[in-house]
Amino acid sequence: QQQVRQSPQSLTVWEGETAILNCSYEDSTFDYFPWYHQFPGESPALLIAIRPVSNKKEDGRFTIFFNKREKKFSLHIADSQPGDSATYFCAASVNYNQGKLIFGQGTKLSIKP
Amino acid sequence: GALVYQYPRRTICKSGTSMRMECQAVGFQATSVAWYRQSPQKTFELIALSTVNSAIKYEQNFTQEKFPISHPNLSFSSMTVLNAYLEDRGLYLCGAGGQNERLFFGHGTKLSVL
User: Does A32 touch chain B if contact means CB atoms closer than 8 Å?
Assistant: First the structure.
């Protein structure tokens, strides 16, 4: 089944803490897993992405952890900043060149100063 | 750099009328264009995926009769919402993909229906 489940629906953390957002999927043919963030009134923007050949991808304060066996992946935002407050969407696709992304439900992240 | 321009940014139409939105890729060849809808308080639903020189594939619950799409070349795509009603409200996004894995999104067209 081509669905991506995302949790939690909303998350509040203090500035400086690590925020953890989770996603899971069922279709084992998915081979590309991006995370997008969306600020109010804006379109989603690609934050970071991973392919199943890796179980970890880092870009600055953002890290994706990927567990192929359990079909789960998570986004960790270290040293959270108020500017990180946004809605985050995980997604997955089968053939990344085709642009057919299946999105999770989104997590509204709030960082308290 | 690669950019996707989408217009109009906002539109209001009367119930039962139609509106068209357009998507322009700049700086790369948009081999694939995916149209999504984000309904209020919801995630992004894929409406259809268009690949140049291939048939347009519509997802379940979306039809060509309701959302006709044109993708005539590697830089342009348009989609029309025919006979729009309240349930068609939302943010419509085009995402264009080139030869690499990154999908670039336009700013979206916010559709309100009166």
Answer: yes
A97: chain B residues, CB-CB within 8 Å: 31-32, 97, 99, 101
Strands (E), chain A: 4-7, 10-14, 19-25, 33-38, 45-50, 56-59, 62-67, 72-77, 86-92, 102-103, 107-112
The reply to whether A96 touches chain B by the CB within 8 Å rule is yes
**Beta-carbon contacts below 8 Å between A and B:** 55
Give the pairing of strands A62-67 and B90-97: unpaired
Q: Are B32 and B45 in contact (CB under 8 A)?
A: no
Q: Are B92 and B100 in contact (CB under 8 A)?
A: no
Q: What digits encode the pLDDT tens for the residues B74-91? A: 999 999 999 999 999 999
Window 2-31 of A, Cβ < 8 Å to B: none
| Cβ burial, residue A37 (10 Å; 0-12/13-18/19+) | buried
Q: pLDDT tens per residue, chain A (113 residues)? A: 678 999 999 999 999 999 999 999 999 889 889 999 999 878 888 899 998 889 999 999 999 999 999 999 999 999 999 999 999 999 998 865 556 889 999 999 999 99
**B43 to chain A: closest CA residue:** A105
B93 in Cβ contact with A44 (< 8 Å)? yes
